[in-house]
Structure formats: structure tokens, C-alpha cells
Amino acid sequence: MDLCRLDATEIARLVRHRDLSAREVVTTHLERIERINPTVNAIVTLDAESALAAAAVADERLARGAEPGPLHGLPIAFKDTHLTSGMRTTYGSPLLADFVPDEDELLVQRIESAGAIRIGKTNVPEFAAGSHTFNPVFGATRNPYDLGRSAGGSSGGAAAALTAGLQPLADGSDMGGSLRNPASFCNVVGLRTTPGRVPLHPATDAWGSLTVAGPMGRTVADAALLLSVMAGPDPRCPLSLDAPGDSFRLPPAGDLRGLRVAWAPDLGGRVPVERDVRDVLAEQASVFAELGCHVEEDCPDLDGADDVFRTLRAQAFAQTLGPHLDASRQAVRPSIVRNIEEGRALTGADLARAAAERTRIHLAAVRFFERYDVLLAPVAQVVPFPVEWEYPQVVDGQPQHTYIDWMRSAYLLSVLAAPALSVPAGFTPAGLPVGLQIVGPPRAERAVLTVGAAYEAATGHGRRRPRAVAGGLTVQPPV
């Protein structure tokens, strides 16, 4: 039994029934991290001693008859943008390379309270900007399917750690694709949640609804398990939703017969999509038809969504990162400097226009989801690109002028404030993963997860792992 290949739900069951100890689980993952992480660079801070001590305490509590939490004994490295008390949180920036918070972020508290054992932190782009994980503090994270390629971002370290078997679950966050793109690039599952589903505290802007937190896993059921402890209301978070977290634990994959499915292979002609991605995804709509769904090619009205996203993103950058720019301009990546300055140049009229246009788009999406239960779309417009690139400068013959242009298939849908699940959808002839995006109406996480689980069961794409990683050897590209 390769423990590091088991689903998180299965590991949790074995530990709960005392067929495995937390110490065995943590020790086995630490050994794998020691072998493989130097090549992949997914986990950038590691505290093995504290993790083993916490595992021993977890085993002792279980032996005394304490009721185990749903994540009892599962090791996890948190995204390096989430505050962890006593463990550095660098945001991938030299300005914060030695920053050690004195408090845990709310989602960290919830995950650890559910029994998970902190082992370290996962790599991110500088200030989580963009969907390629590289920074001047720790360098680049490499894709376990091809070490010469990007793992995506900003939750790239988390996704690479999952597919390499370094941890069974991962937390992430998503503004314009930061959960979904790395999930697609690394053949794992990532869920962008409805704003307020996973409360964010502390937060610079408690009313902000563009950035959300969500779960990642190797299966839909694993992502649902993690969501069940991340979700739930908190009075400090004005957008938080009332549904308790445990309502999202996933039942077996349901019967999809009669499901109304919209298929938008290029978001209604709004985004260029690389041929290899198109070829893989072209077969996926037929999977839903074979499951008994009614599939039509259609797309919600996303006109104006590009301007809305870029305006709100620039405002957020100015608000949260402006002080770092003022402290040391030279220590901030030039492209991020431009984003901050774009935010500072916004007027009240600009923000009012973006708010009004987002409202119009939201209402159009509500009408769209009265006709359809889910929307299917590409997660990423490209396959994982060379790790040396900052971003792909051309997609299907169309120039991409900034480091977020190529992410439109993810960030246009961020504007809808709806749950969007990235689920493995297959591989290119070169062995590179491609993800499918399953989007539902706002607050419909459970429905989206159920659809994702049925698709996952019908295809099995997520079970394919890099061969060398699956054997516990040095990571190398698949052949």
C-alpha cells in the first residue's frame, strides 16, 4: 500500500479506526517530502519536529477515547499567503521573507481544529500575483508531470504537493483562477467557492468578494471533505453564509439524467484556447450526454466582465499591496508595481461603473442558470507552459500583453461570484493535464461537487499520476 497515494478520505478512515496511526501517516509523508520536494519545490517551509510531536498527541488522544475530527491525523502544508502562528508567512516576497505571524488565519484554525497536522507552507507567486508559481524568495515550483513546466498558481505549490503525494489535502485561494489553474495544470481538484462560503479573517476588506478561499484534493470527495471544515458562518465576516460546513460532505456520485448542461468551449468566442486544450475538452461534453444530460452549446453574458475584473483587481492591489510598494519599490516585481499604480489611478466613477456592470452581469447569470443547472468551460486556455516563462505571450495565435491575459477563461467567471470546480479532464498527447471547469449558480457548491463526482467516476482521469512519483522515486517527466 502506497500511503501517499491513498485518498484523504481513506486515510482519515484508517486513522479513525486505528488501522493507521497519525505518526505513521505523518512520518511517511515527511519521508516522501525529503525524497521528492527538492526537485518539485512545492513545500517551502517545513517543521517536521513539530508535526511529529502533534501526531503523537493526536494518537494519544485517540487512544484515550477522544472523538476524532474529520481530518484527524492528516498532514497539511498551508498556502504561504495564509497566516500561521509561529510559522513564517512570506507571500513569496523578500519584504516578508522573515515575517512570522502571531495568529492563525480563520481557515487555518478550522482545519487544525478538525484534526489536521501542520507540516509547513506551500509555494506561491510573489504576493500571489498571477498563475505561475515563482518568486525571488524560494524560486519556481515545477510541475510533477513535466519538471520543465509550470505548476500554475497562485496555489501552485499546493497543487504540485498534492499530485506528488507530499500531502493528501491542500488549502488554496482564488481571485482570477488561483485554485482552478493549478488544479488543471497538476491534474487535481480545486473549488472556487461562492464569496462568503469560506469566511476570511483577518481581512483588509471584509466586504471584498473577488478573492475567496477553497479546498483542493486529489478527488472531488477529498475536496468536499476539506470544504466541510472550512465552510460555515463567522460573525466577524459580513459576507459569510449560514450553511454549516458539514452539509458539504459529499454523498456518492449522483444520477445526472436530465441535468441541463451548457457547454462553452471558448466562453462564447471571448477567449482563445490552445488547440491541445480544445482537443481534450471536445470529448468531454459527450461524457455528460452519455450520462443522460441535456447538453447545449451556450454561455452566459460576460460582456464587460473583463473590465469589471481588472478594475476590482487593481483596486484590491492598491489597497493591500500599496504599503509594500511605498516601503520598498525596488523589492516589488515591476508588473505588480504597475497593477498597484493602476489601482491608485482609479476614480470613484471607475469603481461605480464596475459595481453597476457587475450587478448587470450577475442578474444575467441568474437568468442563465434558470435555464441550465451547470456550465462547462475550459479551466485554462493553455497547457502547462515552460517554467522559465513569466507567462504565455501567445495563445492560439493571439498576443497576450500582460501576465493575466491568458487567464481569462478563469477570471471572467470569477465575476459571477459562483462556485467553479476544476476537475481532471484528460491529457494531451505529450502527457500534460487538462482541466474542465464545472460552474453552478451562486451558493450551489453541493450541486457542483455532486456533478463533478459523477463526471470523475465516469472518466477516472484524476487517477493518472506521474509514473516516477507514483513509485516514490525521483520525479521525472512521464514517457
TrEMBL record:
Coiled coil: none annotated. It comes from the Bacteria. Signal peptide: none annotated. Residues 24-449 form the Amidase domain. PANTHER family: INDOLEACETAMIDE HYDROLASE, TRANSAMIDASE. This is Amidase. The lineage of its organism: Bacteria, Bacillati, Actinomycetota, Actinomycetes, Kitasatosporales.
